[in-house]
């Protein structure tokens, strides 16, 4: 079962290439903690504009992908009762619902109107469990334990009590109307149907349905299914044909046929499974699936499967990228290397040791001799031509698995101390190791440090053997060892690259992945494809080519795809920029942070699948499914609310909304997609004001103030990041009414009065014109001169004011920086750190997410000041600050607390990941030997790590981290301890 889930063993039979395995679904969960009013979901529906609706015992819930809106007896508009029985979408796109008191309601999303049909005697005042419409427009209702009724097209409720010989008093919540308008009802004592003449019948004996619970389901293609006992039957030519038998699953409680024809089946207490061309697929025990009864299954417009259960709401979202993590059996999620051996087994190196996925798909931990009570961290893997597996570790030397034998090469075997980040095997079968102090060859299984002139003697980050040459990656660029001679291509001169993470041979070319993009080495000449040429990130770790000529490139920000022809066109200068496809958490990655300086960090298996080591387990994808994910359907936008001067408006009640002049019009909107809805981008265009679209980013509202009188039409469009804008727009039409003095009739009267006044004044002026002409001319000249002088003085005063404001703003900015920034390191100072700690403590308590604190102290810093001067000490502190800034994530906060003491605040990070972060930073410290510009000067640090506990104060968290720091110093420095 685990093999089928992971896709590591070949599936029996021919699977539908369009049907992904269950491992390609991400599972999302919502409960009352996320805003649901109740955890029991009875029914799910989606209206035409895209909103999802959920029926619960505490009201009707509408979901837009970001927020739950609850309708109950206390809201306006409100329900007649909070207990919602079921939901139904009619052919006109209207939402029907029933409640626990026999009432029926209808919501029309096109007009935002609600209409209710209260309970009508003699129908019982009980919950209506099922609801379906027939071809005549009658809405059939299943009253719990009391029979059937229907709401006719005139709004009259007709009730038909349960016949004495029919088991309707023990009815189940499933009701279906077939193509002949027969109404099928599920009960705990078999299947019942009502014929068109009004008579009730049990299912024919020829159906051969087992006794007990049986219920109907009408699939989207019109097929009528029956769930009875442990079987699923389909009605064909008037007979029930057994299609699937699923013994041992208990009661079957919900059924869904998806758009591919696969059947999803919910059970009473055994979760969810799928039946299709892959056979019966179940989720492994490690996957969190609904507990208790599954009462509702629904496929939305984007193909996601929604599951309503007693334990909450679940969504199965198909993704391009699947993940293999600790919950699937890996010993740890922080994977560093992955290798497929010649037997088809998958070997996984991580910070917690070595795992192997056998040919049958089972994952097991391969024990290596423990170091200091912990499994060695595995950084690199390689298989030699004799089938032996070589394993490079962080600080524990090299292991070799030869059949059932395990051999260890430690630092006492001529192997330099430090970590082994790369292993390669050349054409002659020689194994080469990349160590912290140069390259080692394993000749006759004995380590020998390569000491040829020009061979690097520092940290080796990657290795590759190709065509008789050994390619060596370091933190100072690339070296090529060929026939005893060493070549050092100058990567830094072309793009500033220093650290080399990997190599990829493509024909006669060698592609080099670095911290400044991709470099192509061809016949001694370098070409670069980096950030300036369109790569979305600087640092790229490993590039692999799949069977469909796709190139996959791992990075700290997800996985990128391109092809070799495009890369060469940009490298040759024939194409100015490259446009790569970028995949991350939105496409299913549990963690978009790939791993570099370890190998292999990515591979293409013999079956064509791509596997990438990340900080959140192994990410895997099948490139044959790529086309289905290249173009997502744009999310349809809808207007959620309109307010005028803060008052809600019924904008759907009329074709064009009337707005008073000089009003503030506020519009809230949302794109109805349920695939990472918080990343949807928007743009608006107000016809009558805007000539072009205005992009709003992720802003979900727009406001207009003081619009001139006239007619306006607001257009709203949405898209997924990097995708197409939606052709379907949300549209709001409104008119701004003129003020009294802007009315045309008032303006006409004013114009007429003005004309009459001008005529009178003209006549009066003619009489006095000659007498006052000269005097008036002189007066005009004097006043004009005065006005010119006043204007000049005002212009000079305004210029002086602007200059003063500029100086004040610059001085304010400088004071603000001095108050929050450490002058020496440029890091946040103690004041800003305290403010960030208080803020993140409050956020962590509200969200329940982890928060970790690292306090680190430079070891023997006084000796640096004493031996090399305080100026060198200051330079070291400045470089430490720069290193911490580069090593930390964007969400982390490094700060200088004072002297040689620093702190890092890591949000959404548990203590074990914080320790791993300390380990990575320590690697960067160890890799540097010229601190403060002093060649050979090495700097280390001791660190204390503490994770926020429940109801813990910031001072307590600081004390625990301080205590752990002093413990690290007491244990010998250059280490981290958990407090």
Report what the structure shows.
The chain contains 10 helices and 70 strands. The chain is an alpha+beta fold and 979 residues long. The protein has 5 domains: 1-30 and 254-318, no CATH class; 326-630, Methylamine Dehydrogenase, Chain H, CATH 2.130.10; 637-738, Immunoglobulin-like; 743-820, no CATH class; 830-978, 2-Layer Sandwich (Alpha-Beta Plaits), CATH 3.30.70. Strands 59-65-64-61-62 form a 5-stranded mixed sheet, with no helix packed on it. It has a 5-stranded mixed sheet with strand order 67-68-66-69-70, sandwiched between helices. α7 packs across α8. It is flat, with a radius of gyration of 36 Å.
Compile the SSE list and pairings:
Blueprint: H1 2-6, E1 25-30, E2 41-46, E3 52-56, E4 59-63, E5 68-71, E6 84-89, E7 95-99, E8 104-108, E9 113-117, E10 128-133, E11 139-143, E12 147-151, E13 157-161, E14 171-177, E15 183-187, E16 190-194, E17 200-202, E18 214-218, E19 224-228, E20 231-236, E21 239-245, E22 252-257, E23 263-267, E24 272-276, E25 279-282, E26 294-299, E27 305-309, E28 312-318, E29 321-324, E30 335-340, E31 346-350, E32 353-357, E33 363-366, E34 378-383, E35 389-393, E36 398-402, E37 405-409, E38 422-425, E39 431-435, E40 438-443, E41 446-449, E42 460-466, E43 469-474, E44 477-482, E45 485-487, H2 491-495, E46 500-506, E47 509-514, E48 517-522, E49 525-529, E50 540-545, E51 551-555, E52 558-562, H3 564-572, E53 581-583, E54 602-604, E55 610-614, E56 617-621, H4 627-630, E57 637-644, E58 647-648, E59 657-659, E60 664-671, E61 681-687, E62 694-697, E63 701-705, E64 710-719, E65 730-736, H5 744-820, H6 830-847, E66 851-858, H7 861-868, H8 870-887, E67 893-898, E68 901-907, H9 911-926, E69 941-947, H10 954-970, E70 976-978
Parallel strand pairs: 59-65, 69-70
Antiparallel strand pairs: 1-28, 2-3, 3-4, 4-5, 6-7, 7-8, 8-9, 10-11, 11-12, 12-13, 14-15, 15-16, 16-17, 18-19, 19-20, 20-21, 22-23, 23-24, 24-25, 26-27, 27-28, 29-56, 30-31, 31-32, 32-33, 34-35, 35-36, 36-37, 38-39, 39-40, 40-41, 42-43, 43-44, 44-45, 46-47, 47-48, 48-49, 50-51, 51-52, 52-53, ...
């Amino acid at each position: 079962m685990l093999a089928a889930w992971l896709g590591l063993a070949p599936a029996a039979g021919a699977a539908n290439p369009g049907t992904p395995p269950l491992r390609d679904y991400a599972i999302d969960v919502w409960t009352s903690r996320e805003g649901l009013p109740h955890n029991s979901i009875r029914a799910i529906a989606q209206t035409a504009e895209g909103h999802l609706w959920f029926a619960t015992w505490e009201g009707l819930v509408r979901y837009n992908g970001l927020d739950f809106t609850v309708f109950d007896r206390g809201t306006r508009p409100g329900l007649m009762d909070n207990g919602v029985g079921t939901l139904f979408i009619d052919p006109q796109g209207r939402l029907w619902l029933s409640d626990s008191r026999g009432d029926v309601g209808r919501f029309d999303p096109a007009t935002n109107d609600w209409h209710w049909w209260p309970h009508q005697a003699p129908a019982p005042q009980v919950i209506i469990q099922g609801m379906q419409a027939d071809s005549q427009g009658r809405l059939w209702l299943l009253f719990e334990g009391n029979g059937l009724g229907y709401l006719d097209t005139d709004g009259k409720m007709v009730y038909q009590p349960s016949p004495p010989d029919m088991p309707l008093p023990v009815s189940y919540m499933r009701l279906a109307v077939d193509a002949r308008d027969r109404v099928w009802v599920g009960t705990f004592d078999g299947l019942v149907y009502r014929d068109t003449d009004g008579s009730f019948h049990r299912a024919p004996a020829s159906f051969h349905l087992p006794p007990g619970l049986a219920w109907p389901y009408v699939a989207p293609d019109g097929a009528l299914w029956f769930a009875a006992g442990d079987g699923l039957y389909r009605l064909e030519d008037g007979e029930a044909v057994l299609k699937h038998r699923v013994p041992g699953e208990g009661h079957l409680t919900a059924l869904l046929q998806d758009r591919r024809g696969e059947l999803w089946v919910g059970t009473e207490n055994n979760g969810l499974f799928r039946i299709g061309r892959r056979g019966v697929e179940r989720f492994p025990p490690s996957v969190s699936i609904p507990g208790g009864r599954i009462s509702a299954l629904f496929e939305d417009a984007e193909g996601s499967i929604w599951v309503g259960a007693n334990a909450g709401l679940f969504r199965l979202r198909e993704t391009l990228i699947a993940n293999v993590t600790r919950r699937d059996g890996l010993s740890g999620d922080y994977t560093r290397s992955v290798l497929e051996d010649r037997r088809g087994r998958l070997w996984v190196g991580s910070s917690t040791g070595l795992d192997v996925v056998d040919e049958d798909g089972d994952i097991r931990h391969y024990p290596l001799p423990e170091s200091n009570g912990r499994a060695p961290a595995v950084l690199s893997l390689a298989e030699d031509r004799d089938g032996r597996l070589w394993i490079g570790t962080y600080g524990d030397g090299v292991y070799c698995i030869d059949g059932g034998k395990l051999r260890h090469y430690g630092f006492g075997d001529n192997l330099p101390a430090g970590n082994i980040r790369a292993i390669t095997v050349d054409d002659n079968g020689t194994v080469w190791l990349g160590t912290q102090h140069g390259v080692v060859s394993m000749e006759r299984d004995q380590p020998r440090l390569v000491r040829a002139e020009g061979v690097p003697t520092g940290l080796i980050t990657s290795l590759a053997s190709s065509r008789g040459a050994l390619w060596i990656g370091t933190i100072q660029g690339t070296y090529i060892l060929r026939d005893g001679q060493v070549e050092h291509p100058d990567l830094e001169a072309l793009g500033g690259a220093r650290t080399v993470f990997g190599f990829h041979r493509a024909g006669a070319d060698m592609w080099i992945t670095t911290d400044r993009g991709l470099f192509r080495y061809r016949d001694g000449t370098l070409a670069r494809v980096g950030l300036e040429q369109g790569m979305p990130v600087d640092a790229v770790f490993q590039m692999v080519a799949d069977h469909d000529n796709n190139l996959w490139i791992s990075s700290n920000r997800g996985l990128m795809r391109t092809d070799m022809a495009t890369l060469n066109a940009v490298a040759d200068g024939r194409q100015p920029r490259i446009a790569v496809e970028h995949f991350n958490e939105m496409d299913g990655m549990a963690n978009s942070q790939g791993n570099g300086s370890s190998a292999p960090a990515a591979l293409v298996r013999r079956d064509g699948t791509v596997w990438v080591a990340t900080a959140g387990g192994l990410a895997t994808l099948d490139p044959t499914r790529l086309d289905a994910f290249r173009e997502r359907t744009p999310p349809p936008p809808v207007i959620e609310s309109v307010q005028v001067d803060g008052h809600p408006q019924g904008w759907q009640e009329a074709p064009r909304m009337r707005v008073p002049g000089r009003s503030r019009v506020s519009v809230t909107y949302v794109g109805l997609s349920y695939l990472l809805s918080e990343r949807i981008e928007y743009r608006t265009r107000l016809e009558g004001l805007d000539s072009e679209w205005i992009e709003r980013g992720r802003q979900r509202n727009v406001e207009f103030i003081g619009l001139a009188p006239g007619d306006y039409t607001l257009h709203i469009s949405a898209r997924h990041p990097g995708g197409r804008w939606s052709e379907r727009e949300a549209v709001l039409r409104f008119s701004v009414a003129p003020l009294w003095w802007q009315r045309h009739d008032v303006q006409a009267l004013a114009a007429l009065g003005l004309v009459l006044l001008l005529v009178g004044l003209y006549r009066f002026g003619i009489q006095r014109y000659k007498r006052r002409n000269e005097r008036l001319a002189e007066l005009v000249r004097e006043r004009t001169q005065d006005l010119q002088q006043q204007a000049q003085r005002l212009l000079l005063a305004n210029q002086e004011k602007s200059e003063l404001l500029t100086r004040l703003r610059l001085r304010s900015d400088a004071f603000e920086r001095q108050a929050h920034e450490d002058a020496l390191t440029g890091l946040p100072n103690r004041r800003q750190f305290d403010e960030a700690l208080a803020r993140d403590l409050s956020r962590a308590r509200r969200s329940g997410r982890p928060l970790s604190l690292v306090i680190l102290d430079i070891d023997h810093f006084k000796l640096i000041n004493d031996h090399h001067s305080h100026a060198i000490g200051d330079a070291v502190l400045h470089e430490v600050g720069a290193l911490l800034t580069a090593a930390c994530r964007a969400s982390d906060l490094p700060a200088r607390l004072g002297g040689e003491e620093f702190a890092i605040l890591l949000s959404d990070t548990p203590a074990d990941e914080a320790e791993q972060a300390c380990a990575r930073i320590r690697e960067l410290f160890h890799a540097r030997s010229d601190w403060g510009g002093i060649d050979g000067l090495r700097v280390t640090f001791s660190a204390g790590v503490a994770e926020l506990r429940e109801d813990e104060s910031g001072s307590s968290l600081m004390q625990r981290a301080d205590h752990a720091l002093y413990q690290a110093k007491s244990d010998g420095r250059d280490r981290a301890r958990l407090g």
